[in-house]
From TrEMBL:
Organism field: Triticum urartu (Red wild einkorn)
The gene coding this protein: LOC125534188
Family matches, as PROSITE patterns: PBP
Protein name (Swiss-Prot/TrEMBL): Protein HEADING DATE 3A
Coiled-coil positions: none
Family to which this protein belongs: Belongs to the phosphatidylethanolamine-binding protein family.
SUPFAM superfamilies: PEBP-like
Length: 172
């Protein structure tokens, strides 16, 4: 059995296919760096995080932030919900140096424990990537194919549930 947290947490499978990471992704909410599977409440992720990507010098990156468990993990009928889309992020630069295509929207789960994933792609060149007309039913694999982004180069995720709730994860 694999110990890769992206496989165990079903990020690989539900959002992306297996990939070999070739970049490092750091996501910080108020100076707290997320680790795969860490628990954060909506109040802790209300503000846009600081995101840094370290990879191939001179490269540009695209960042996708999605929740595959909307409206609930047992009925993810709106999988994937797009929370954020940023392109043209320079290597070693913060995400704020990129082009925000879809503005950050904080996760606000109402039922169950939601996985919120950050997926990074290396761009072949600076390119225009257009905002989808909706946030629900976004498909990370489709945008990668549509814009020839290839396989992801990094990913991370955290778990989030509504304030004051408790309990374990339920999959359908």
């Amino acid at each position: 059995m694999s110990r890769d947290p992206l496989i165990v947490g079903r990020i690989v499978g539900d959002i992306v296919d297996y990939f070999d990471a070739s970049a490092r992704l750091r996501v910080l909410y108020s100076y707290r760096e997320i680790t795969n599977g860490s628990e954060l409440r909506p109040s802790q992720v209300a503000n846009q995080p600081t995101v840094q990507i370290t990879g191939r010098p001179g490269s540009l990156y695209t960042l996708v932030m999605v929740d595959p468990d909307v409206p609930s993990p047992s009925d993810p009928s709106q999988r994937e919900y797009l929370h954020w889309l940023v392109t043209d992020i320079p290597e070693r630069g913060d995400v704020s140096c990129g082009t925000e295509v879809v503005p950050y929207e904080r996760p606000q789960p109402t039922a169950g424990i939601h996985r919120v994933a950050f997926v990074v792609f290396r761009q072949a060149a600076r390119q225009a990537i257009y905002a989808p007309g909706w946030r629900s039913n976004f498909v990370t694999r489709d945008i990668a194919e549509c814009y020839s982004l290839g396989a992801p180069v990094a990913a991370a995720y955290f778990n989030c549930q509504r304030e004051g709730s408790c309990g374990g994860r339920r999959y359908r």
